[in-house]
């Protein structure tokens, strides 16, 4: 039994707020009580068959999503796809997976051990995408993973959840562009991810993006709690293609830097 599309995003949103206290404030700040249209959400995983991108994607396909674009992040060893719903006000979904076989033997061994703990029925369960880590990871394993791949450490610790929600600036009342949104955020005291510049992309590539740096939150590992980067908020301004329709894809060079919003320092 799967979710309906609104129920799925409401569950993802409530789970996201629990570890991203700034998101509640930012949502209130920009929405002022009105509905905010999300451009997209993002979810991370490993490419081992039991929990890979295709397994996660099926949850969205079941509620009406279709695959639309594919991306490669060479240095981060990630493959990603994006999915869209026939209702343009439903968020796009960006799912990435770490190509585990390209990583060190040590990382491969740890990730394999984590995924082996997961019964095959679990990733098919209705609540899988908003239920956090389905495995037990120790502090030592987390440290080894994050030392090699920030993405692997984050995914092992936080598991399945929305890594970020993204305000669709074109549909945001009171703001016309990302520059104004960024200024408002900084004036309100939020730290923006400056990797590659505060604004990633340009009108030339039909997409501009910015993001806050992730909050810090308590994550319970198998042998104790750690205080680590959790999730962040992103902002996207899109431009029209020559045919007059809004560009709905992603720009790999920009997304590459957005991934760094969960760096711990
Ligand atoms: Ni994003």
Written overview of the protein:
The chain is built from eight helices and ten strands. Helices cover 31% and strands 25% of the residues. A hairpin with a 4-residue loop joins strand 2 and strand 3 (78-85). By secondary structure, the protein is an alpha+beta fold. It starts with a helix and ends in a 7-residue tail after the last helix. The strands form two sheets. It has an eight-stranded mixed β-sheet, with helices on both faces. A two-stranded antiparallel sheet has the order 8-9. The model has no long low-confidence stretch (mean pLDDT 96). The relative contact order is 0.17. The site of nickel (II) ion has 7 residues, from strand 1 and strand 5.
What's a quick, concise take on this entry?
This protein is 31% helix and 25% strand. With 265 residues, it is of the alpha+beta class.
Report the structural category.
alpha+beta
Helix tally equals 8
Radius of gyration from CA coordinates: 18 Å
Strand segment tally: 10
**Strands across the major sheet, in which order?**
2-3-4-1-5-10-7-6
């Amino acid at each position: 039994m799967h979710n309906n599309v609104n129920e799925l995003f409401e569950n993802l949103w409530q789970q996201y707020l629990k570890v991203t206290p700034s998101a509640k404030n930012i949502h209130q700040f920009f929405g002022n009580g009105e509905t905010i249209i999300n451009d997209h959400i993002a979810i991370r995983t490993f490419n081992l068959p039991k929990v890979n991108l295709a397994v996660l994607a099926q949850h969205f396909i079941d509620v009406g999503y279709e695959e639309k674009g594919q991306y490669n992040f060479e240095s981060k060893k990630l493959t990603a796809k994006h999915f869209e719903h026939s209702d343009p006000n439903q968020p796009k979904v960006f799912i990435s997976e770490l190509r585990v076989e390209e990583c060190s033997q040590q990382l491969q061994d740890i990730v394999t051990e984590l995924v082996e703990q997961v019964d095959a029925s679990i990733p098919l369960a209705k609540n899988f995408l908003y239920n956090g880590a389905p495995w037990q990871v120790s502090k030592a394993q987390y440290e080894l993973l994050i030392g090699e791949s920030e993405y692997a450490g984050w995914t092992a610790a936080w598991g399945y959840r929305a890594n970020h929600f993204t305000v669709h600036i074109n549909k945001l009342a009171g703001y016309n562009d990302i520059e104004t949104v960024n200024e408002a955020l900084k004036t309100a005291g939020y730290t923006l991810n400056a990797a590659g510049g505060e604004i990633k992309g340009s009108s030339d590539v039909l997409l501009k993006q910015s993001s806050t740096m992730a909050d810090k939150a308590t994550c319970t590992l198998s042998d104790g709690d750690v205080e680590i980067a959790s999730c962040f908020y992103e902002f996207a301004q899109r431009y029209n293609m020559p045919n007059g329709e809004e560009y709905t894809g992603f720009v790999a060079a920009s997304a590459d830097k957005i991934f760094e919003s969960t760096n711990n320092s």
